Prior knowledge:
With 163 residues, this protein is mostly helical. It is 60% helix and 2% strand. The protein has a two-stranded antiparallel ribbon with strand order 1-2. A hairpin with a 2-residue loop joins strand 1 and strand 2. The longest helix has 17 residues.
Amino acid sequence: MTSNHDLSEAAGTAPPVTELRLRALHIFLTENGYLEPAAIGALINTFGSRIDPNSGAQIAALAEPDLPVAQVGGQAMLAIPRNGDGPVFRESWEVLAFALAMALAERGAFTWAEWAEVFGGEIMRAGEAGELDQDAPYYRCWLAALERMVAHKGLAERATAAR
């Protein structure tokens, strides 16, 4: 599969910061043994062909200040962009973000209830910053939740201590 960041690199332009953050997280998680490259590859093979630039979750309405953060995250997980075959993605980097979260949850790094809390917090932060009106913020919030979860669970500290 040719990804958008492969094309941007071939054309001589740098990938967006979001993609660079995601790549760094992916490298960190695989090099430190938190995730198996084969498991990530299998998830990407399953979902990687489901790119639809017109898909997008409507999460702006979810960031209501009166709702508990975990409820926002849970509703956002239900709002994941999908078609009849399952999740769909606007860009190829979103597939990797989705795969990393799936693989970490499958390995027991966090529960989906914990994920809903952190993801909901990221949606609320994006709403407060006025970022939910921008194009396709769903997986930017997803990536921010992944980064926060890795930090919250101390994965970086464990990797450093093991060296």
